[in-house]
Amino acid sequence: MNTKSLFRSLFFFFFCITTMNAQEVLTIGDAMKIALENNFEIKIAKNNTKISETNVTIGNAGMLPVATASVTDNNSITNSSQTRQDGTSTSLDNAKNNSLNYGVSLGWTVFDGMKMFARLDQLKELQKLGDTQLKQTILIKIAQVNSSYYDLVQQQQQLSALDTTIVISQQRLKLAQNRFSIGKASKLEVLNAQVDLNSDQVALLRQKESYANAKILLNQYLARDPKIDFKVTDLVTVDNTLVLADLMDLAQKQNPGLEAQIINKRIAELQLKQVKADRYPVVNLTSGYNFSESQSSLGFTSQASSKGLNYGFNATLNVFDGFNQHRNEKVAKLEIENSQIAIEQQNMILNTQLSTAFQTYLTNLELIDLEEDNEAIARQNLEITLDKFKIGTITTLDFRTAQLNYVNAKVRYSNAQYVAKLSEIALKELAGNMNF
Q1: Which of 79, 105, 167, 427 has the smallest C-beta neighbourhood within 10 Å, fewest atoms?
Q2: How many angstroms separate the CA atoms of 425 and 279, rounded?
């Protein structure tokens, strides 16, 4: 079998394996969908968002009246004696006394310096913050799934490269044994070929272990049974059209970290409004309907009852509180200032991260081209070396060197694609532009 036939056979072999197991292939789209449905941290973040949404009510902001029902029943058995003003006295053992009171009271704060409206707006901003935190959690987890997925693709490609070198090593061993049998090679050449084949098999076993562990890790991110077996696509497609200016514009609009800082500033401003509201009076309307009944075995009145409606209002105004109002307002203003500083800091960090990540991205794109050329050269070199080895014009050491160079070139090319993909993922995560 000539060299070109060998490579065609290898390609056909791996193509058949992929075709037979096509139904078991997990695409990156499927992986992201499963993660969005199953990932535990995403589920928790979704529930936290629902909590924030549930809290946005006018009742939670203090705009609605509060009605309270109450019942009080007191009973006693006592030995009692009474002496009246006219000198007469009465006494009774085991005297029973009881009183029953029940009713409904209503309280409604109708004015509190507009604090309740600021509180409602603050609850809405907290809901937005929860949405932003959910988005950030999803971005982080989807980026993890992408990184883990393409690491698995890389591991799979390296398995393919090692499978290829084992086939070549087996052919080399067979050639060495044939040459030894006809007296054209020494036993040493056969032993060297066997040792190199064993070394390749050890490397393949190690790679299979790494591949299996990478698969378990991806299953963990997908929150499913680590024993679930699957394959991934054998292709890494890197988006080479990213532009730094576009990414920075997207980051200003979509980066969840920056969004959270902007929302935190708005929350701080609303907190200042609530603090300033304490300078104004608080007016409460009160109303209620009560019923009371009492019975006494001793005394001027043996039984009494009453029922009726009561209503009114009360107003309070903080006249002096030891300058706490002034202190609270000053602290709230400092919180706003801190939130503005945090926005500026987040902007600077974001731009720095984007700039450095983009430079790494450009370098990795160039490395892909270089490693692709290196792999083509190494393959051509191996083909020529294999032909020469068959006719005995080069040493086994030269052949082994060419073989290892080819394997290393394939691994480096695979790694270059993977690293470039990680750079792309990092840039899109920073820009808040991950597709899921």
Answers
A1: 79
A2: 51
* Number of Cβ atoms within 10 Å of the Cβ of 175: 20
Structural tokens at position 13: 């072999």
* CA nearest neighbour of 383 among 164, 190, 159: 164
**Nearest CA-CA partner of 118 in 62, 55, 53, 52:** 62
Residue linked to tokens 């080479």: 240
Q: Please tell me the pTM assigned to this model.
A: 0.83
What is the three-class DSSP state of 297? coil
Name 312's bridge partners.
286
And the tokens for 341?
A: 């500083």
d(CA 356, CA 423): 10
Q: Which of 118, 120, 116 is nearest to 271 (CA)?
A: 118
Measure the CA–CA gap between 215 and 222, rounded to whole angstroms: 11
- DSSP-derived letter for residue 395 is -
Under a CB-based contact definition with an 8 Å cutoff, are residues 79 and 93 in contact? Answer: yes
Q: In what order do the strands lie in the sheet with 89-111?
A: 66-83, 89-111, 282-296, 303-316
Instruction: List the chain pLDDT tens, one digit each, 436 residues.
Output: 444 444 444 444 444 444 444 447 899 999 999 999 999 999 999 999 999 999 999 999 999 999 999 999 888 887 777 676 676 777 767 778 888 899 999 999 999 999 999 999 999 999 999 999 999 999 999 999 999 999 999 999 999 999 988 998 898 899 889 888 888 778 888 898 899 999 999 999 999 999 999 999 999 999 999 999 999 998 899 999 999 999 999 999 999 999 999 999 999 999 999 999 999 999 999 999 999 888 776 655 667 788 889 999 999 999 999 999 999 999 999 999 999 999 999 999 999 999 999 999 999 999 999 999 999 999 999 999 888 888 878 888 888 899 999 999 999 999 999 999 999 999 999 999 887 6
* Beta bridge mates, 68: 105
Tokens of 136: 């950030």
Query: Scanning the structure block, which residue is given the tokens 């070139």?
Result: 409
